Amino acid sequence: MKNTGLLVCTALFALASAKSYAQEFYIRGGGGYSMENASTEFNNADPNGLTMIRQSTDITVNPDGSANVKSLNGTLGSGFKGNLTIGYMFNQYIGAELGFNYFTGDEKTLGKLNSPLMRSEAKAYLEGLDVMPAIFLTPGLAKLNPYARMGLLLPVAGKLHIDSQAYAPNGGGEGVDINVKARTEVESRFSVGFAGALGVSYPISPKLQIFGEVEMKSLSIKSKSAEIKEYETTAITPAGSALVPGMQLADMPKSETHFEFEDSYTEGPEDPTKARKIPTQFVNASGLGFNIGVRYSFGK
Prior knowledge:
- There is one protein chain.
- The chain has one helix spanning 2-20; strands at residues 24-36, 57-61, 67-71, 79-89, 94-105, 108-114, 119-137, 145-168, 177-188, 193-203, 208-218, 220-237, 240-243, 258-262, 276-279, 282-284, 287-298.
- The chain is mainly beta.
- The protein is elongated, with a radius of gyration of 26 Å.
């Protein structure tokens, strides 16, 4: 009976302490870095087939005609990030947050080809703004205080940037090399991911804390549309280089510069004045990384 009474008193004291804890708002800000996580195949970066790159591969063609093929699976979720979060603690154990995360990704090679006829490469990186509503859980220790947070990851702005280049020795005839450069931007549809973090905080004043955490995000972004923003074809000779007439961005029909991603569509005669429909693609933006920063509390 004594043990039972002690347990009940302890539980009542903890409950009373939680109720008496001053509810508070806080702001947390910091930055960090994410590494790749949960690798998948990269997207097709050249729907027009101008670079001769096979999707998500690094291919070297040997003089005897054989080829060495290397897989380039990965994610576009590695890179630097900054975050600003507004939170509210209901008691000393649980709170709710709304975070804003800016991300600028590392450039990754999506495909590469090295052959006697052409040397080409496509690279890409992500940049964008995510919103993360989450719950915040902690034991509420006075000094070194562990915590966990978890919630949804909602991309609200941003783009996928793809840079492609193809170099063809003697592509314009003997002694005339051809170099093609293109830059494409991909817009996304509404997508939902998940993120969670485990960390610790430490007070350096009654209202200010420093924190460090390990964060994992799982995010696959559905593509909506793509547009070739820059396209330049140059002829290179010993005498110099010059733009090739009729092979610039302004000379390309809309069906070769604008693309719409669809889950289902009907193929037919291509209308050069309209965007071309191509199968839906997803951009893997998953990552595993760390954040460090400071947290300022109001109301204490």
